[in-house]
Design goal:
single chain; mainly beta; Methylamine Dehydrogenase, Chain H; 4-stranded antiparallel sheet; 46% strand
């Protein structure tokens, strides 16, 4: 989300974080870097805190905190990994930079200057580039992951909030939070290739702004190549075939929809996508084959995440920020089957690559909970995870932010 919306969450936060980059494991003040408890680079969860500069590393094999890395960042937002998981890229939104951390030594190896207020970032399918959203500059930075330098800063967006990629790696699709259109980027030239407007609107140069963040928060692409982008102002979902490059009929959902969660790494999960609607506190479940609404369920006024799992392919887990719980939905029957209290507001979560765990931040409690996807049980609780843990990144997991 943009800086304007985030102020409602972060107004009480102090940004008097030390300018020193104190890398290493253990609590602040511990001497020098220590080995991380995690045996492999793949079995980790990286937790970004928004109100402090810690990056907390959770060992998913032992379910223990392995490291705490002092990044020197201010108002950190989200992390992404390079292709072999040896580097962690963390956006520091207030200092307009990306902090690059060696995942083997936990040393800060570089700080990459970016545009104003970088937030979400995503690795291209070939692993060559990171696309970083500079929301307050209406631009996207493309970072070379070999050299760790910004090679292109592309303008022409309207509060770019997230970028997703076609399976063949030819195009990136940017969701504009302040507009009624998506923007397509040709990844071979790093130039804007096309604009895809919602029905009844035009793209640039005749685009009409979408005030109050009334545009698109994300444009997630399912495994069948179909893109879904919920439009907040109209309650409609733009649907686009990224393989045939054509628009499909739009879908009406609830009021003020957030994101249609269609993108995840689990082929076992049925082609059904959930999308929370903030305005009427509902959740829409879309049949990805028929591209129609299967069910409308009770929801929350702020549900910023939906997670899926390969070992529980008929379930979806909805993160309810205001209710302070996680709703479990049976996606076959279109029914709520369980609610998991977590003791504070949930923000985002990631599902582990094997589908076993949902790792969710409970930001107001400085907590992270680990939910067993098969049993719906909270099997581990981590307290004192930085100050306001905000986002979770897991290698090969289902990762997103808000």
């Amino acid at each position: 989300m943009s800086e304007t919306t985030e102020r409602s969450y972060f107004i009480a936060a102090s940004f008097a974080t030390s300018a020193l980059a104190l890398s290493g494991c253990g609590a602040a003040g511990d001497p020098g870097p220590q080995p991380c408890a995690s045996a492999t680079l793949e079995d980790r969860a990286y937790i970004v805190s928004a109100h402090s500069d810690e990056l907390t590393v959770i060992d998913l094999e032992r379910l223990e905190i392995g490291c705490r890395v002092r990044t020197g960042g201010v108002h950190n937002h989200m992390a992404e990994l390079n292709r072999d998981f040896t580097k962690i890229y963390l956006d520091s939104s207030t200092t307009d930079e990306n902090v690059v951390i060696d995942a083997r030594t936990f040393e800060i190896v570089k700080r990459i200057p970016l545009g104003r207020h970088p937030t979400h970032l995503k690795l291209t399918p070939d692993g060559r580039l990171l696309a970083v959203m500079n929301e307050d500059e209406d631009a996207i930075s493309f970072v070379d992951t070999e050299q760790d330098v910004e090679i292109k800063r592309l303008s022409g967006f309207d509060t770019p909030h997230f970028m997703r990629f076609s399976a063949d790696g030819r195009f990136g699709y940017a969701a504009n939070l302040g507009a009624h259109h998506l923007t397509r980027v040709d990844l071979s030239t790093l130039e804007i290739d096309a604009h895809i407007p919602l029905d009844g609107f035009e793209g640039p140069p005749n685009a009409t702004p979408a005030p109050a963040e009334g545009g698109f928060a994300d444009a997630q692409i399912g495994r069948d190549g179909i893109l879904y982008a919920a439009h907040a102002a109209t309650g409609r979902v733009l649907v686009y075939d990224t393989e045939r490059h054509q628009k499909l009929p739009e879908i009406g959902v609830g009021r003020n929809p957030w994101i249609i969660f269609a993108e995840h790494p689990f082929p076992e999960v049925a082609n059904r996508h959930l999308g929370p609607n903030f305005g009427d506190r509902t959740v829409s479940m879309i049949d990805g084959d028929a591209r129609s609404i299967l069910a409308t369920l009770p929801g929350d006024s702020e549900a910023y995440g939906v997670n899926y799992s390969s070992i529980a392919p008929d379930k979806a887990f909805v993160m309810n920020r205001i209710r302070e719980d996680v709703t479990v939905v049976d996606t076959t029957r279109g029914e709520i089957t369980d609610r998991i209290p977590v003791g504070g507001n949930t923000e985002t979560a990631s599902t582990t690559a094997d589908g076993r765990f949902i790792v969710a931040t409970v930001s107001s409690a400085d907590r992270v909970v680990v939910i067993d996807a098969a049993t719906n049980e909270v099997v581990k609780t981590f307290d004192d995870v930085g100050d306001y843990p905000w986002s979770v990144t897991i290698p090969n997991g289902q990762n997103y932010c808000h």
